[in-house]
Amino acid sequence: MTSTHASGAERLTAEEFLGAEPDAFGDVEIEDGRIVRMMAQSRAHSRVTRRLAAALEGARGSSGICMRVESDVAVRFPDAESKRPERRLNVRYPDIFVSDCEPYDVNTVRDHILLVAEVVSKETADTDTGIKPLVYARAEIPVYLIVHFDKSWEAIDRIEEYRLDWSGVRYMPHKVHRGELVLDTPVTLAITFEALYQA
Fold first, then answer.
1. How far is CA 162 from the centre of its chain?
2. Are 119 and 45 contacting, i.e. CB atoms less than 8 angstroms apart?
């Protein structure tokens, strides 16, 4: 179903992606139609992602708004401006996102996301800190969290919180959390880093 081009890159059109079974392509993201294979994550990455998602889920009732917390679920972002259909599709699988309770649709869920979080790994550092902030901000997702590990890749060093600026399509640093994550939107939450990473 995927096509391989002269560059050797596997590519995928929107029609191929939408017509396939869920998870038909394995652990991938799609950037301008190009399939990017994802590496298996470390135990620490998995643990922090799972615990942060659970903490966000537990805090949902604090706002009075119906919210869902998802992890590694497909989100389609705006297509690239290319005349070639195999160079347009953009699909990401955020580590965590919080959305309103509108029914899930891969094509429109980005419009309902209130917060997105990525837990940085060695393999994804450049993407999580360079490419994804641009993608998520252009989709007007209000809050972006980036969880950084220390040099051991076992304990959390800091969590950077970004929010949209006046333009509504660009992030500005809001706060660097150290030792504890404290949020006031879209949920009210306070959780120590130790609670997120300790085995």
1. 13
2. yes
For residues 69 and 40, what is the distance between their CA atoms, to the nearest angstrom? 22
The tokens describing 143, both together, are 């809050």
The 3-state DSSP class for residue 137 equals: helix
Radius of gyration of the chain (CA): 17
Q: Which of 110, 106, 135, 130 is nearest to 120 (CA)?
A: 130
What is the DSSP pairing of strand 180-183 with strand 189-192?
antiparallel
Q: What is the dihedral of CA 163, 97, 67, 171, to 10 degrees?
A: 10
- Between CA 100 and CA 140 the distance in angstroms is 14
pLDDT by 10s per residue, the chain, length 199: 334 444 456 999 999 999 988 778 888 899 999 999 888 889 999 999 999 999 999 998 866 789 999 999 999 999 998 889 899 999 999 999 999 999 999 999 999 999 999 999 999 999 999 999 999 999 999 999 999 999 999 999 999 999 999 999 999 999 999 999 999 999 999 999 999 998 7
Which residue, 104, 103, 99, 127, is CA-closest to 115?
Answer: 99
pTM over 0.70? The answer is yes
